[in-house]
Specification:
By secondary structure, the protein is α/β, with parallel strands linked by helices. Helices cover 39% and strands 20% of the residues. The strands form two sheets. Strands 4-3-5-2-1-6-10-11-9 form a nine-stranded mixed sheet, with helices on both faces. Bound molecules: uridine-5'-diphosphate. Uridine-5'-diphosphate (UDP) is lined by residues 10-12, 48-50, 54-56, 68-69, 72-73, 75-76, 129-130, 132-133, 135-138, 140.
């Protein structure tokens, strides 16, 4: 079982077909994360913002890229607050830290303080990505996992249970990988995370587990190292 994990949630993991933020989905997630915390693991979370805005997509619609990326980062803060609220409703103690300072809303990201929160059993939720445009929250996960010395990044996917050689939703013959190296991912051009995030994990020797979070109990299984997904190592 891992001691300190970083869970990467995409913005979509908090949404439904109808709503960008779905209260029932948040509640279910919080109940599962409460159980995860009860195992004694130290839990940090990086949330995405794709349920609101992805910078690249609105750039394609004619908006300035950096402006669009800052909007995306603010979207991740909204999600971080939503996850915080859901967890605190279940009695889980949390702190949000943002890479863009907004002290009335959350703490600024301070590594030592984040680690202290983890040691005290608080769940730390990182918002605003890296604070820099042109990056993704996958890269944020790689960066924060390296900084806090996480044992593993748990890459929670919606409806996909690992890494395949082609899109399993389009190709019924797609083959799933159980184990991969980061070099395999780069050489085969597998779509796990963007290449910046992959390189960062590879350079800093951070392990990654890609798994399906839509199956109940899978986050806890992932923390125990028992989930059926794809494990990627150096
Ligand atoms: N973003 C950014 N820098 C970062 C992290 C995120 O500019 O360090 C912006 C970027 O525009 C991105 C958006 O925030 O598209 C939302 O994040 P992401 O697409 O990674 O969210 P997810 O797909 O995980 O929901």
């Amino acid at each position: 079982m891992y001691k300190r994990v970083l869970l990467k949630l995409s913005g979509e993991a908090l949404s439904s077909k109808e709503n960008n933020l779905e209260p029932a989905v948040l509640k279910e997630l919080a109940i599962e994360l409460k159980r995860v915390k009860e195992t004694g693991v130290e839990l940090a979370i990086v949330v995405g913002g794709g349920n609101f805005i992805r910078g690249k997509q609105i750039q394609d619609m004619g908006m300035d890229r950096t402006q669009a990326d800052y909007m995306g980062m603010l979207g991740t803060v909204i999600n971080a607050l939503a996850v915080q609220n859901a967890l605190e409703n279940e009695g889980v103690v949390t702190r949000v830290q943002t890479a863009i300072e907004m002290q009335k809303v959350a703490e600024p990201f301070i590594l030592r303080r984040a680690v202290r929160h983890l040691e005290k059993g608080r769940v730390v939720i990182f918002g605003a990505g890296t604070g820099s445009p042109y990056f993704s929250t996958d890269t944020t996960a790689a960066l924060r996992a390296s900084e806090i010395g996480a044992d593993v990044i748990l890459m929670a996917k919606n409806g996909v249970d690992g890494v395949y050689d082609s899109d399993p939703k389009l190709n019924p013959e797609a083959k799933k990988f159980n184990r991969l190296t980061y070099m395999d991912v780069l050489n085969k051009g597998l779509k796990v995370m963007d290449s910046t995030a992959i390189s960062m994990c590879m350079d800093n020797d951070v392990d990654l587990i890609v798994f399906n979070m839509n199956e109940k109990g899978n986050i806890e299984k992932a923390v125990r190292g028992e989930v059926e997904g794809t494990t990627i190592t150096q």
